[in-house]
Amino acid sequence: MKENLSMADVLRWYLDSGVEETICDVPQNRLNEPALKEETLDQNSIASTVSDATQQFSAEAEILLHNACEIAAGASSVEELKNALLNYGGCPLKKTATNLVFGDGSPKAKIVLIGEGPGAEEDRSGLPFVGPSGQLLDKMLASIGLDREKVFLSNIVFWRPPGNRTPTSQETNLCMPFVERLMELIDPEILVILGGSAAKSMLAETAGVSRLRGKWYNYSTPNLSRPVQATVMFSPGYLLNSPVHKREAWQDLLMIRNKFESLGLN
Ligand code: URA
Asked: Closest Cα to residue 158, out of 105, 114, 190?
């Protein structure tokens, strides 16, 4: 049955179906793309095709990673690192993002905060933590006498994962050399990791935040002169949805303030 749908009906239907971002200017009909050639493969040839493809895939991933490491290592200031990322096309997330979300704050900060990834408002503005979770983060920082001038904020990935999904390990692996270089160039005293997936990338810790929080870890990279004192907190986005954890977040903030004071940084 053919219905007469208004533009508003069509848009509503898109939203109900989960289409909330436009990626290309022109629609692309994937059904018209050439179908895969059908071949009859026996078990052995399937196994060898899969093994060839896996080897080729890991060789390509290694080249991409090597390339990211070289580009990141070439940056000798935070500004140069941002420019290197603006020109970097290796991470697939760049293709679906509107803007690079590099970081915000002072490159001389003694505290760096690293989150899980930009959301929709960060993607639109090109700045980290500007949406509702950013507003909560600003209040959390203010509660211990800090603000965006005194810290540096960034994420484990520099482009928004579509639909706010968790970034894949390939995406985080390709951004990690730039995050590590950022840490080396800022050389802070304290690193605050916001959220479980950020903890996994930064500290290789796979436990949940409830298990990881409230402690200090050593964060190292090959070129940091000494390990940075790192701690893990619930991400502000998680706290907005689960305010019951705000009490623990407050204890974590006090622990960070004590560390800050004991290092003579206030
Ligand atoms: N949450 C994050 O982890 N990072 C942002 O930039 C915004 C929200």
From this structure: 114
